[in-house]
Amino acid sequence: MSYFCSRIIFQRFQIKQIKKFNFSNVSGGPNKHVEFPKRNKPIFGKDGPITWKTVGITGVLGAGMVTYLLYLKEEQEEKQRRERKRQLGKAQIGGPFELLDGSNNIVKSEQFLGKWMLIYFGFSHCPDICPDELEKMALVVDNLEKEDMNTGIQGIFITVDPDRDTPKIVDKYIKEFSSKFIGLSGTSDQIQQVCKRYRVYYSPGKKDVDNDYIVDHTIIMYLVNPEGEFIDYFGQNKTADEIVEHILLHMFKFKQEKGSLLSNTLEKINSLSGKKIVTS
Amino acid sequence: MKYNIMSSKEEFLSKNERTKCWSSRDHFWECLRSNNDKADKCTDLRLIYESSCPVQWVKHFDRKYNYLKFKEKMEKDGYEPLNEK
C-alpha cells in the first residue's frame, strides 16, 4: 500500500517538473527577456505542490521535531535539577554543633559564622597520625594568613576520646601545635553527635593493663565556609601546599558567588524601583 | 618483663616527649633494618624505645613496622595475583 502511494507521488512530481521547465530559455543571455513559467494550476489541490498528503507529512515531521525539542529541553532541565540535588547532597555533611572549650565554656558552631573553619578530629593520646596532621593544619593556617585572598580561617580540633580528653586537656594539647587553634571536647553524646554530623568514624581499642588505649578514627580535615556549610575535605595524602591551594580556590569561588549574588540582587532592586543605584 | 616509665602517665605526651619517643623508635628501626630484623642485636635500643614511648604506642609502632616492611616488599617484588597459581 505504502509502495503504491509513494509511486503515485513520484510520478506526479516528475510530470510537474517537466511541465514547469521552459525549454525556450535554455540558451538565453542576460539581455533576453526571461519569462517565468506560468502556473496555471492552483497551489493547493489535487495537482498543486501542496496536497493533503504533503501537509500531513509536514505535520507529522513537524510534530516529531517539536516533540524532540521538548524532550531535549526536559532533559536539560532534569540535568540542572540533578546538579542542584548534588549540591544539596553535599551539604548533608557537617552542621551545627555544641561543645566545650578549654575554660568549659559552651562553644556553638554559629559563633564561627563569617569565618572559614578547618576542622580535624583526633585524640591527645594519638601516637603519630594526629600530631602529623595537626602540624600540617598549623602550617596550612599559617600559610593561608600570608595570602591576600584569605578571609580568616579558624583551626578547630575536636576530640574523639571525650573520656580522657577533658576540655582542659584538649586545650593544652592543641595549643602546642598552634596558639590560634581551638580545642573542643564535650560529653560523649555531644561528641557522638558532631561525629555523626561530619560522618567521622571512631572506635576506642582494647584497654591494656594501664587502662591505656588507642582510638581508631577517620583521618580527614574538613573545610567549612563562612555560612557554616561543609565545602571540602582533605585526607592524609594531601600536602600542606595542596590544601592551601584548594582552600584559596574555594575562598575565591565563594567571593565570586557572593559578589554575583550581590550584583544580581542590586539589578533586581534597580528594575523594581526604576532607579539606578550606582554600585562601586 | 617490660620496662616502662610512660605507662602510668594519665595525660598525653608533650611535644618534646613525642619527639623523644619517635626518635628512639627510629633508632631502633634503623638497627633492625641493618641487622636483618634480628631483634636480639638491638635490645639496648629497644629498651630505650620502650622507656620513651607508652606501651600502646610501642604496640602500634611494632605493627606499623611490620606493615611498612610488607608494603616495601610488595612495592619492590610485586605481588602474585590470587587467581594465578
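Residues 8 and 54 of chain B are 9 Å apart (CA to CA).
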